[in-house]
Amino acid sequence: MSAFAALLRRDLRLAVRNGGDALMVVAFFIVAGVLFPFGVGAEPAVLARIAPGLVWVMALLSVLLSLDRLFQSDYEDGSLAQILLSPQALVLAVAAKIAAHWLVTAVPLMIATPLLALLLSLDPALLPPLLLGMLLGTPTLAILGAIGAALALGARRGGVLLSLLVLPLYIPVLVFGAGAVGAAASGEPFQAPLMALGAFLLAALALGPWAAAASLRQAAQ
Amino acid sequence: MIAPLFVFAAATPTYGAYVYPAYLAAIVVLGALLIASVRRRARARREAQALPPRGDSA
Amino acid sequence: MHRFANPNRFLRLARAVFPWAVGATVAFLGAGLYYALFASPPDYQQGETVRIMYVHVPSAWMAMFVYAAIAAASASALIWKHPLADIFARAASPIGAAFTFLALVTGSLWGKPMWGAWWVWDARLTSVLILFFLYLGHMALLNAFDDPARGQRAAAILALVGVVNLPIIKFSVDWWNTLHQPASVVRMGGPSIHPDMLTPLLLMAAGFTAYFVMTVILRIEAEILARRVRAHRLMQGS
């Protein structure tokens, strides 16, 4: 477990020292989201109607954008080989990297979400289901993304390949995440979609790190 | 490849505007894949034949 | 299984099976098309449009069956390093993608007269679309690396991850209230479909299966020979 904590601390410290990277993802999230009022027109009613889906899609794309660096820098500077050689379970190391990635990208996204929601005239009453959904959904995104990032490690045009691999797997999270906000908007209880997101998260937690570890091991062969 | 299409077109006019394109799509997609596979094997056989004979390992 | 790990032994078997596969494809598809287009009744609700079913349903079955076969082959490639399993997965992927594409296209052509829309975002349609993307990702990953073996291992893991989608496709019509009709052939208590419609359906399914066997043999042989050529050129080059 101390290896887990050590790797987590190292990744977080790296992220803090290169602070710009995490902020850039948040900036992308806001800037890309702000494009939509220009695209679909700035009527508040229209924007409020599509805002939950927009926030979710932007969050998905922001997570995706940050994924290619998840293992790439460790792969290039050789620390990945060190991690693979170490006697610690690779699954724990992968879990630590995923946790660090989630803390560094998804948490700032959630902090920035109220701002984007405000810009897209989302009803403030809908923020709790949106944020709860993101809290349950973004770890699943990070885990699935880690599998994809490990698979595409070292590929030609890895970034494009990564989105082709990962985006289809993100669809269920998007459906239920936006569904929770949609249910809340029409005055229905939104527990069921949130529970589905929780179920995805548990399944991804149980299986994802092993799949990502297996992909990493074959990438380094 | 072309002849069955005409038979189709002659035989299925009464089935509405959607049945015929569905079968056409099946014939085109599966036919194209089959032709591509046959050509791929033909090329592979040609290239393998050009190799000098050697041991039994692949 | 492991008897056929030797490509030469497999090639001999495949060359023996191939004429039968061609014959079965022609016979089953011929009979299936005859029954589907001439010797089956129109549906009392859907009219003649029901004939789309005889391409749509077998394509959808094949789309899932081929994916399951690829996943099984990928598992045996990862666990036992079975060399032919990799070749099979590479050969079968475009065929499965073609069947999935066909299922989507014919489904769209069926949906327009029945539901009034080319496409609806229903759970069954969405999950099949995800299956199509998985096939695309599988093929892209296979060819994304300079070292083909690396692409095969990555694609094998992706194929196994994507297996989650198969039960979702199968049960999507039961779990969610969808526009897509529920299963009527493979279900508890026997098929609910009339025998006159079941005959062309099963004939077409058999024809598609034979087509798959025929095409996959063609592609496997091409791949084995291409590898032999590549290995030879590498030896020449060094």
Structure description:
- The complex is a heterotrimer of chains A (221), B (58) and C (238).
- Chain A has helices spanning 2-17, 20-40, 44-67, 69-77, 79-85, 90-119, 127-151, 158-185, 191-220.
- Chain A has 221 residues and is mostly helical.
- In chain A, helix 2 (20-40) runs antiparallel to helix 3 (44-67) and helix 3 runs antiparallel to helix 6.
- Chain A starts with a helix and ends with a helix.
- By secondary structure, chain B is an all-alpha fold.
- Chain B has a domain at 2-8 and 15-47.
- Helix content of chain B is 72%, strand content 0%.
- Chain B has helices at 2-11, 19-50.
- The longest helix of chain B is centred in the middle third of the chain and has 32 residues, at 19-50.
- The two termini of chain B are 35 Å apart.
- Chain C has 238 residues and is mainly alpha-helical.
- Chain C has one domain.
- Chain C contains seven helices and no strands.
- Chain C has helices spanning 7-37, 53-80, 83-115, 123-142, 148-161, 165-175, 195-237.
- In chain C, helix 3 (83-115) runs antiparallel to helix 4 (123-142).
- Chain C is globular.
- The model of chain C has no long low-confidence stretch (mean pLDDT 85).
- Chains in contact: A-C, B-C.
- Chain A binds chain C through residues 147, 151-152, 154-158, 161, 164-165, 167-169, 171, 175, 211, 214-215, 218-219, 221, and chain C through 78, 126, 130, 133-134, 136-137, 140-141, 144-146, 150-151, 153-154, 157-158, 160-162.
Attribute tags:
heterotrimer; B: 58 residues; mainly alpha; 2 helices; C: 238 residues; 76% helix; globular
